[in-house]
Amino acid sequence: MPFSHFGLRPELLRAVQALGFSTPTPIQQEAIPPALEGKDVLACAMTGSGKTAAFALPILQRLAGRPAGGTRALVLTPTRELAAQIEQHFRDLGRHTRVSTATIFGGVGMKPQEQALRRGVDVVVATPGRLLDHLRFPYAVLRSLEVLVIDEADRMLDMGFLPDVRRILRHLPDLGKRQTLFYSATIPPAIAELSREMLRTPVRIAVDRPSAPATGITQAAYPVPSGLKSALLAELVKRGEIRSVIAFTRTKHRANRLADYLVRNGVAADRIHGNRSQSQRTAALGGFKAGRFPVLVATDIAARGIDVEALSHVVNYDVPGSPDDYVHRVGRTARASATGDAILFVSPEEESDVRSIERAIGLRLPRLTLGGFDYTARPVVPAMPARRPTPPFRAPRPGRGRPFGSSAGGGRGPRRPRMSSR
After folding, report:
1. Which one of 104, 112, 410, 414 has the largest count of C-beta atoms within 10 Å of its C-beta?
2. Is the pTM above the cut of 0.70?
3. What is the DSSP secondary structure assignment for residue 333, as one 8-state letter?
């Protein structure tokens, strides 16, 4: 089925063709038609499935060719990187239209964002917290909104944004006066409840689809002691077995330590996590996309906000705590039906978490080994010798030592205090 089957405007088809999209992905085939009809949509779509275009194209079709009249579409998303990525998709797909866009997120000044809201740009892509900051002021008016998109709803739940989303809803047209497109990689109970509050008789798409990595991702695991993980990653990059890789760590501190280790050992790298400023995060992502360094170290804040063409590898430097996090991380490669490799570094203490991931995705990850790093091939450390038994207690011989409570004067007992002569 070609994109022309949807009846899209010629200027949108020109942009799609220029971007090299030949046929719609499965989520696009299912979600675009009801969205074009103005229906609410509840879609469970995997990361990297092409869902951004699935909601961007219907919005652009709706707004293109109409005079501006305030902000008419709002996309809520959990992270700054994902907001920037979505806005770029709107720009690329709407390059031949006059639809205007703007991003609103933290870490940067509010003044340009205020000006965009005052102008009434057509499409606003925002993170919930910063948008609420603006909604405290009278210039931020969203009562003319026609389309609301909730993207990565389950990630918003994980990051504690659902109360903010509910507060934003109070500033929007009532249910039934707007179209709502609701996207989530998984549908836990809290997300299902929120969707019932926000949607009116939605078209449900792939709601029961199990969470699993995209097809085209080759998955494997390296058994490696925790203390040798950094050296293993550096060695794989130096050997040329990994060309362009995002390495995910569990914490910001570990991301800093890994990036510093790689640089000290001759591997160009940068990092992206929540403690870095927006300018630092933008520079790191831009440098990685431009190929100035082969390794980008990231925490899970970037798991759904990085879109890099031809990303060859994702390395789970730390095993994620849940199968869903694993799926979102490895979804950075094999984007939109491409191919890629996902590697898991597994230390002995992480084996139980790996088994949980394997059960969830229905796949036993093949084990790869590299000489000197495989803990399963390392010699067994002999057990420590047993401690010498403590000798039994023996009572001291007469005249040796003092009874408990005795004074320094031997066995004469405690001295009596000398009476004062005064």
Report:
1. 104
2. no
3. S
